[in-house]
Automatic annotation (TrEMBL):
Coiled coil: none annotated. This is LLM class flavin-dependent oxidoreductase. InterPro entries: Bact_Lucif_Oxidored, CmoO-like, Luciferase-like_dom, Luciferase-like_sf. To bacterial alkanal monooxygenase alpha and beta chains. Residues 1-302 form the Luciferase-like domain. Signal peptide: none annotated. It comes from Allobacillus halotolerans. It comes from the Bacteria.
Amino acid sequence: MKLSVLDQAPITSGNTAVGALEKAEELAIVADELGYTRMWMAEHHGTRAFASSAPEVTAARLAAKTNQIRIGTGGVMMMHYSPLKMAEVFKTLSAFSPGRIDFGVGRAPGGDPQSMYALAEGRQPRVDNMYEKFDHTLQLINDELTEDKLYAMIASPRGVTLPEAWMLGSSGNSALETARRGVGYSFAQFFNGQLSNEILNMYRENFIPSPFMEKPEINVAYLVTAAETKEEAEYEAKPQDIARLWLMQGKMGQLLTPEDAKDYPLSEMDLMKIEESRKLHIVGSAKEVAEKLQVEQEQYGFDEAMICSIQHSQEKRLQVYRLLAKELF
């Protein structure tokens, strides 16, 4: 099975944003050495919980620090940027690291309403033109002159190796739109747990080859906590359980230590919500997690599992990726 990394540069309790970005760099180097296929940085705004606000900038650093692994974004939130700017950024990345850059995009805001309006300089953010914006960006990356006068230009630098293009999604509509554009489909299973053969088949059956991708490619992003034993994994997963509980309550705080999470007061209702949210979080020994991923791959036929693992300890987080590589490579 092909494995990849999705990282949000989590700022865990007692640690700093600078430290979170340094840990993302360390993770990229380790993933490269282990043979992971790609590493993507997410985009989050207006939060103390994640430091990954400029994934395309971080991608430049990670690509420079690694040798083989593909580096990209998972994803750039298109509503905040013009097609020309996105095209120029990713063509520049590809010029420096040809054949290793992924242009992954999403249609969500990646932040709260205040962040959305600040990024739009106080204007009403447009959310109804995401696919059109994506089309224009792909044309500019591919050095195509369009009939749209606004984009009848060249995005510099010209003549670079095309990055792979990917659309993030979690629904049948996004699968169909992605297929029509001939780009890869990244399904966020840890968002809503709605992965289905119907959605993935819709993508496969409607895929139209493009300069960015000759055949359909699917990766599925999972939230994972793995350890040597199930008991250790459960201990390390408790802070993430609480973080997801906070998210359901409209809060977003920094990840607790396992020691603090162990004694965190939880009501019966809290425990029920945590149990429900575990459907979006794979927890177990490395062997159990690997078997779960293999079962899902056999059931849904995706090409690659993208692992997002958030532990308070960087050592424990790196261990997750090492253990899964050992089980699945």
